[in-house]
Amino acid sequence: MKKSNISQKIGFFVISLCLIATLFFLGTILYFITVRGIRSISWEFLTKPPSGGMTEGGVSPAILGTFYLTIGAILFALPLGLACAIYLTEYTPKNIVVKILRISINNLAGVPSVVFGLFGLAVFVKFFNFGVSILSGSLTLGILILPGIISASQEALTAIPQSLREASLALGASKWQTIRKIVLPSSMPGILTGVILSIGRAAGETAPIIFTAAVFYMHGYPKSIFSEVMALPYHIYGLMTEGTSPEKQTQIAYGCALILMFFVLLLSAIAIYFRQKQRRVQHG
Amino acid sequence: MHRVRENIYKWVFAIMAFASIIFLVGITITLITQSFPLFREIPVKSFLLGKAWYPTYDPPEFGTFPLVAASVFVTFGALLVCVPLGIGSALYMNEIAGYRQKSLLKPLIEILASIPSVVYGFFGMVIVAPFIQKVFNLPTGLTAFTGSIVLGIMATPTVASIAEDALSFVPKSFREASLAVGANRWQTLIKVVIPSAGSGISTAVILGISRAIGETMTVLMVTGGAAIIPKSFFQPVRPMTSTIAAEMGEAVFGGLHYNALFAIGLVLFIITLFFNILAEFISNRYRLKLGAGR
Description:
The complex is a heterodimer of chains A (284) and B (294). Chain A has a two-stranded antiparallel ribbon. Helices cover 77% and strands 1% of the residues of chain A. Chain A has helices at 3-37, 43-47, 60-90, 95-110, 113-127, 134-158, 162-170, 175-204, 207-210, 232-241, 246-283, and strands spanning 50-51, 56-57. Chain A has a single domain, classed as MetI-like fold, CATH 1.10.3720.10. Chain B is mostly helical and 294 residues long. Chain B has one domain: MetI-like (MetI-like fold, Orthogonal Bundle). Helices cover 77% and strands 1% of the residues of chain B. Chain B has 13 helices and 2 strands; from the N terminus they run H-H-H-E-E-H-H-H-H-H-H-H-H-H-H. Chain B has helices spanning 2-17, 19-41, 44-49, 65-96, 99-112, 117-136, 144-168, 172-180, 185-196, 198-214, 217-222, 240-247, 256-293; strands spanning 53-54, 61-62. In chain B, helix 7 packs antiparallel against helix 10. The radius of gyration of chain B is 23 Å and the shape is globular. At the A-B interface, helix 1, helix 3, helix 4, helix 5 and helix 6 of A face helix 1, helix 2, helix 4, helix 5 and helix 6 of B.
């Protein structure tokens, strides 16, 4: 055999090994969390609050809390993100404006999540005096997912053929009518994909809500947007670092990790499936 | 009348579009103003180079060198895991996998990239740490080494996904030209495809670094949390992010410790900003280069 063919064999073997190792590690995580977590899951676990000093009962307040925080984050980020995407693609501002916006969106996307937490603490919790609350946490998470919503919406809007817009304008519709009646409805699937991905992101983030929203234990359920909340990701952290009976708590944490992981993976699987389908349609 | 309304809509969108700039500027201003009181008491130099972090002692010491060193340590270790695995996986998907295999693997990797960091941290605590403690016979499994491995595994799907995007941007004609002059597939990959996707791949690596430095939950749960200058990979460390997350709860609002944690946030923000701008700069040049090749 030629020397170059031997090196090809070795090279291909090494990169195959890399892929196998990657899949193995990720598979190990899925396996352990699923197999050990499933023992915790029961109807009670999903619907009852914790009891017996965090060693028994369910985690329903944490599930509900994560739900509230995520909805709040989307309600805040979606209008802003969509407006930004519409402005960039439909109103095509000057080049320099586009450039500045793009740089700040990209850099916002790269800010570490714990820094968002610091910002939320200083601005929402202290300055606006919202306290440690659903509102503060939602706003903080909203800023975190904003860049993702903007780029997904932008991708969806630019995929709409120019001819659709021109047809609408030629019929005498104004720019705003064209956006509302033509562009937005046809780009809706793409925008929704971005929203679904962002829900998964917001639900799994822990660092931004440690100082702004989450508590390890609270009595009953939150009463208003100014209440503190329990949240699934923070609950996992709390169970592992606080409390007095590590063994029982670890088992509950397995259950929480499984719920959170399953939920986030399901959302991103749905979103990526739809994105794949849309891209295929666009590229013929 | 109609005109006026159209103009109003335009301005509403424009104003909302500037939200992301406002937030970025807001974050910068917040970090600076909140950490400013610290620098009136302690010179910037001893904050950055001080070797002792004892925020609750009397008098307190706010030297962040051990924390920065821990971050660099853990991030470097994570890179040793995620760069070969991520890029290797990307090469496999791009070169060896057939159409059907790739259309299964790529989405799978992207889906796995979304597993929340707290789940990785939890996995590191209950599975990886005890394993490492046993294998290396250590007093504790919560070490910089454990943090590096878990963080590296966590960043691998992201690096793989971005690197594969970069590889698939390389024009087909490059590959065909190389094969036509008699190079085999491996030579083509090493000498043609990887160099032309080089800046895209380095963007993937830089974004991986920036994400690893800024990652909080995994290192908070897995690295053990001792604020000492790391001497070996097998001891507990406390990176910048976990210092902020772990100590903010006990810091008095408006006190020096509180300000010091914001100052760490500022350092972290500047470091990640630098890497993000670097990545942007490289990927811009890359687009120009390949654009000319097409």
